[in-house]
Recover the amino acids of this structure.
């Protein structure tokens, strides 16, 4: 009996002074709620069994800041491996049915819908190799490839339209698509023709005022291929004042002394101009228009040898006023071009003519005014 008292169950003897013992409560068996901090724990602990933390919806664990999810770390965290049996959400606090980097919403619910689907809201850079075993469904924006792009092993590539490669237009009758395999234009398409001759009639008159700068006629032109030789003939019905006169030339894909030889004949009522051996793109000089506000005929002819060129391949008539005047020069409808590709012949020979009356089936004779040309026969027993 310490001090004459009887101790109760759960009490212990506690020395409170010299030769003095009292009954006291045993306070070593527990702790009250919310009374422990981490400084009460040792720095290194070891579990002797599995540990489970139940977290009802109202209870969350946060490290570094107040949590908004069951377990949240504000700052940097590291792990040797990351294993997840559900979606992965990076860059946002709200998860969706598919994994994603960022917070954008997919526009392809048919293919991006599950745990193993991924949406990237921002950019993606791949410095190594990439393999795609599935199908590229869609590119909503532009695609740029700085290196080569090859489809092999029996695969194929398709497009609803083709742009570039040097090709602008190639859809006229007689046009043919040509491909350059080597040289400065390797890998480019160009437009040529598979016709040995070419005819085009000007359907709408064209006017030009106050300009002595040569321009391409808007209709009298035709496409050519590379490394071809053509005999070209433009027959022009011109309408102008006698104070305006004319300038003529022929434009080709590439010019040079050995490439073009162009001549011009002006058939005026008073004077006749003849000039020849002009390079492509070189003006004829002033060609007189003798009559005031009257129609006169002009012939522009010669040979053109095309070489490898980088621009669109066509041969065109060029014209302008000889003297700048506010009154317009007009190339009338009905003017036309006639061109022959020099590629050899068998049953029939190709000859140049300046006779507008020569049509298929016409009986012709040698034209002594041309080095290799013909004209409509004058009659029976024509000496030419």
């Amino acid at each position: 009996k310490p001090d004459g008292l009887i101790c109760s169950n759960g009490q212990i003897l506690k020395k409170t002074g010299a030769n003095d013992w009292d009954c006291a409560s045993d306070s070593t068996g527990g702790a009250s709620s919310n009374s422990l901090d981490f400084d009460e724990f040792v720095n290194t602990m070891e579990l002797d069994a599995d540990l489970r933390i139940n977290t009802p919806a109202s209870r969350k664990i946060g490290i570094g800041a107040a949590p908004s999810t069951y377990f949240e770390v504000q700052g940097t965290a590291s792990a040797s491996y990351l294993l997840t049996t559900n979606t992965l959400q990076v860059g946002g606090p709200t998860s969706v049915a598919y994994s994603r980097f960022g917070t954008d919403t997919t526009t392809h619910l048919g293919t991006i819908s599950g745990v193993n689907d991924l949406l990237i809201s921002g950019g993606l850079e791949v410095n190594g190799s990439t393999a795609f075993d599935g199908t590229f469904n869609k590119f909503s924006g532009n695609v740029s490839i700085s290196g080569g792009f090859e489809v092999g092993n029996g695969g194929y590539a398709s497009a609803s339209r083709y742009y570039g490669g040097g090709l602008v237009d190639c859809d006229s009758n007689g046009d043919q698509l040509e491909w350059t395999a080597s040289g400065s234009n390797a890998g480019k398409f160009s437009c040529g023709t598979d016709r040995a001759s070419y005819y085009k009639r000007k359907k709408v008159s064209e006017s030009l005022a106050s300009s002595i700068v040569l321009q391409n006629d808007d209709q009298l032109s035709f496409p050519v291929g590379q490394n071809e030789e053509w005999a070209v003939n433009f027959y022009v019905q011109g309408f102008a004042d006698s104070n305006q006169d004319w300038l003529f030339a022929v434009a080709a894909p590439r010019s040079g002394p050995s490439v073009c030889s162009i001549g011009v004949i002006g058939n005026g009522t008073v004077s006749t101009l003849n000039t020849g051996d002009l390079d492509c793109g070189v003006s004829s000089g002033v060609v007189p228009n003798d009559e005031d506000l009257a129609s006169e005929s002009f012939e522009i002819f010669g040979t053109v040898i095309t070489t490898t060129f980088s621009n669109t391949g066509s041969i065109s008539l060029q014209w302008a006023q000889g003297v700048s005047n506010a009154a317009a020069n007009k190339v009338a409808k009905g003017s036309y071009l006639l061109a022959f590709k020099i590629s050899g012949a068998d049953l029939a020979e190709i000859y140049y003519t300046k006779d507008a009356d020569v049509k298929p089936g016409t009986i012709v004779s040698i034209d002594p005014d041309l080095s290799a040309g013909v004209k409509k026969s004058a009659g029976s027993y024509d000496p030419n």
The radius of gyration is 47 Å. DSSP finds no helices and 22 strands in the chain. The chain has a mean pLDDT of 80. Residues 167 and 223 are 12 Å apart (CA to CA).
